[in-house]
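Q: Give me a backbone?
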Amino acid sequence: MTKFIEEARVVGQRILNATTKQIDLIAPRIAAEAVPGQFVNVQVSNRTAPLLRRPLGIACVDKKYGAISLIYRIVGDATKILADVCSGDVLSIVGPLGHGFDLNAKHPLLVGGGTGLAPLWYLAQSMVDGGIRPDVLMGGRTADDLFWKDMYLDLVERMGLTTDDGSLGTPGTVMAELPLMLRRLHYDCVYVCGPVPMMKAVSAAVLEKGIKCQVSLEKYMGCGLGACLSCSCQGVGRRLKVCQDGPVFWAEEVVEW
C-alpha cells in the first residue's frame, strides 16, 4: 500500500476533555490515500527525545482540503509535547499505515471505548458517505469520557451509552448493553476498538451469535513498518505484526491479544 513521509502543517488543536485533544493537520498525500482503520506515525519533536514516532489512528479525513484529524490522550512525555503544538507548526508524519476495516456491512454496529472510538469515528463517516448509517455502542468510566456522543450524533441510527459509575447511560461496561442489542437487532458485522478486555468480551459474544466481527488492536509500535516486531501478537498458526498485518483483524484470526 502507498505510504508517504509528509511534513504536515498543524491547523488547529481542540480540547475534548481534561486528558484528550484533537489535532488537525494538512497532509494531502496521506489524506488522499487513507481508509478507515489505518494510522499514522507522528514525530512529535525534532529533539532526540522522545526518539520514536508515536502511532495514532486516523479519526477523520477531509480529502477535498487534504486534511486529517488525530485524537489522542495525554498520557506521557510524547503526548505532552504534542499537546503544546500550535497552529502553523509542522510535524513529520508517516502514513497511511496498516490495513483498514472491511466496508461491506449493510447493518453494522460499532463498539468502542476510550480513544478506540477515534478510528471508529472515521469508519462511521465513511459508512454514511456510502449510504449506510451504523449503530454505535460506546463505553466510558464516567460521563466526561463520553464526549464522543456529540461527535457521533449525526452519523448513527442508534446510540448506546454505558459508564462504569452510572453517570450516563446504562451502568457498567458495554457488555451490560451489548447482549440486548444483539438480540433485538440484526447486525451483519460488528466493529470493535478499545481496551483489550472489552474487545475480547465483545468479540466472543458476537462470534457466539454467528455474526462477523472485526477488531482494531492497539499495541506499542517501535517502527510502525513491521521491522522491529515490538507489536507482534499470536494469530492462528502464525505471529501477526499489528502494524503491518493489521491493525484491523477478523476477530477469529487473533489468538493472543
